[in-house]
Amino acid sequence: MEFQHIRLDLDPRRVATLTLNRPDSLNALNAAMLDEMRLAIGRLGDEGARCLLITGAGRAFSSGADLAAGGTMPTDVGEALEKRFNPLVEALFALPIPLVAAVNGPAAGAGASLALAADIVIAARSAYFLQAFVNIGLIPDAGATWLLPRLAGRARAMEMMMLGERVPAETALSWGLIARMVDDADLGTQADALAARLAQGPTVALGLIRQLARDAERLPLGDALSAERVAQREAGESADFKAGLLAFLHKRPPEFEGK
After folding, report:
1. How do residues 77-106 score in pLDDT, each as one tens digit?
2. Is residue 195 a contact partner of residue 51, using CB atoms and an 8 Å limit?
3. Domains in the chain, please, with CATH?
4. Of 2, 50, 86, 121, which has the fewest Cβ atoms less than 10 A away?
């Protein structure tokens, strides 16, 4: 299908690139865009994608929820979370393939949440992250209250959420919110290379790593160890493990097929 508010491209390396494509509104997230994102994510398995890269068109990653949409004051601000934002966040976390975010500019509100939900976040030097909800009398959403304390620690998360101030990419890197910061001109090249490397990796193992890392936040040590045991058995049954082991024994680079 043709998308109106996003672009979805799959290249021969099995990297799927999802571009938020409302640059005139700084990629503000309206209902149609959120629906298209969920549809796109649902297609990745059929398309054979082995890594998803999310970025924004123009000069922003995303300015967050489109507060101007509809032109009227909503009676239930949380309704959009239940119907659209929360299912999208869950779908991103449930992906069986790696997720990379290339933050090319401002990532605000729910836009910041979507970026920080990625496994590896790489940001341009000029980018910044902003939780401005408090400035209009709302709470951070789209998973922000769950994500930020885990990524940056409670003290920094509370400062970010309660003061509603910009966090530059350099600060986000030092806080542990993101993995890498690069010069603006290098963002596209480096994010693409990172996504390609992940797409060439052992997809089954990478998907299990995503699942274990998420579940570990709520599991006691004993349960986490049991989960590792189950996941390791599944990884050990994959064709990629066999290929990787043979490559190791023969001292050559592995060629993973994602199976």
Report:
1. 788 889 999 999 999 999 999 999 999 999
2. yes
3. 6-199 (3.90.226.10), 203-249 (1.10.12)
4. 2
